[in-house]
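Subject: mismatched residue count in predicted assembly?

I count 246 residues in my input, but I want to confirm that the predicted structure covers every chain. Input:
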Amino acid sequence: MESSAPLSRQRASKRRARPIPVRVGVDVASVAEIAAALSRFGDHYISRVFTKHEAAYCRQAAEPVAAARFAVRFAAKEAALKALQPESGGIDWRDIEVRSGRSGRCSLLLHRQAASVAARRGVEHLALSMSHDGGVAAAVVVAVCGQPLKRRERRRASPHR
Amino acid sequence: MPRRIADDVRLILREHGRLAVDVGSLADDSNLYEAGLTSHASVSVMLALEEQFGIEFPERMLRRGAFASIGAIRHGLEELIGADA
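Triage response: the counts match. Full output below for your records.
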């Protein structure tokens, strides 16, 4: 076991094992709150926050399932924002899109500013998990990142290191 | 006038902000997120402000800081509709 190995070997092992850099974001949303916004703001709310693809998918279901679908997507967008951690400026919610596959599995598709931030962060893959129960919608986003750009550039500049 | 904008902001926050404290107890620079404003409630506040003032918040203002305080919201509105609106 590693814990019984000499301390010097553990330190050497830690130096060799490079952790995969990931960023994680999580968010929860109240389905009732989203339903209230849908009722109060209607199309203004939907067109401002959700893409046409998302709206079409959510509207396939009758209430209250439709509100739950919108709620998990809103949570996914906020979770993605937390994972991406944009430096400054804003990101339109519609630039973070939840795509619903035929198998029922969902994934994230980034557009415009969100895609630019992800590229700057070195994000190579985004994993999404969503769920809703008991009136609460939740989403977790894991962003798997490559090497930071500066380090990559440094390596290109010094190939023998 | 700026005073009226701030009053409208407070009214909308009271109706849509779902804050944990009374809006009247907040100073213009009080942190709304610390007062209980959630990310989704900030969307409702934004939509209500857009309806009230007939504007649309541009992408550069779709960030947490733009809705972090009554003063920040007022500042953004003044920029969008003009300080003498």
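Chain B has a mean pLDDT of 91. Marking this ticket as 'not a bug'.
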